[in-house]
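SECTION: protein entry
WANTED: fold as tokens:
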Amino acid sequence: MWQDRGVSERSDAIVVGAGIVGLATARALAVRHRLAVTVLEKEPEVARHQTGHNSGVVHSGLYYRPGSAKAALSAAGREALYRYCAERGIPHERCGKLVVATSPEEVARLDALAERGRANGLGGLCRLSPGEMREREPHVAGLAGLLVPETGIVDFRAVCRAFATDLGAAGGSVRFGAPCRRVRTGSSEVVVETPAGAFRASALVNCAGLQSDRVARLAGERPAVRIVPFRGDYYLLHPERRGLVRHLIYPVPDPELPFLGVHFTRRVDGSVEAGPNAVLAWKREGYGRASFSLGDSLETLAFPGLWRMAGGYLRIGWEEYRRAWSRRLFVRSLQRLVPEIGEGDVVRGGSGVRAQALDRSGRLLDDFHLLAGERALHVLNAPSPAATASLAIGEEVAARVVESFGLGRR
């Protein structure tokens, strides 16, 4: 049984969650606004969940609706991230990606995608013929392609470690093994109780990702959205078959689906990932196909928005589940882009769990969603490109916290 050890320290701001959004926000509060910041993280190290399980892609902003928060933050954050990585010597590469159309319908969508990319300020977009595609990716198959030069790859765990170093240099700290057990808010301060002690501050920033709606409820909020976890599984190409993919190869996204579909990603360590699929996860932090939590499952199933959402995706959801358990079906999906790949060319890789916010109507939120509370700001949806745009998101969230709660300079 946990017992209150008393308030261990006082900060200007507490940030819950040492993923990339939480650390970027804490860094901005400490470095730009010169505030005393404490990050509370329940795990023993940074980037243990969404950030540490993503594909390592620096997104260009190609897909996002012009004028949306995602489009604006992606453009600003992408370039800021490239500069930051170059300054800090963090492994990264602006390698570009190839979006491949494999049917006449997809060719038409490819043209619309290029127009959207230009509206979002992307330079160097180039339509490629089948022959031109094979000059870049000799093993790819398709009717047409779109080259997106500004896409890249990076080690996001290394980025998080660098953010934490910056935070420490500015006088902030990350407290590990400190999950939120209780949040008490008042007119002038917030107290977060954890097994590591109680922490007091003038403001709380909830960047807890997969647990963000739960932290919001601990703080007395009644968010209209629920975090519904979706697991994505990856395969890895055998080292001797990595030559099948030189850079990044993506399909043309289906506008009726909420996820991109399986694709190929070369990582900064030279490995090549294939995936992910997208299936409802039965544990918020479960990274295996058989991972299960009764509490998480019941909470998901009890939310009416899940059933309203599921009604529109029954066939697709069933296909995704079949593919999650069948290497043959997974590889068949990959063969649409690279026909030469076979079942013997891949081995099971890791998995990630996406914290997807869902409202009661069954709508999957596709943009950032923040909820302001008493002495607290809750980041309840931070979809891709959250990692890419983390520096820009951190600056924006930090500025809003400073303004909303009257935090002054030290």
Notes: The longest strand covers residues 346-359.
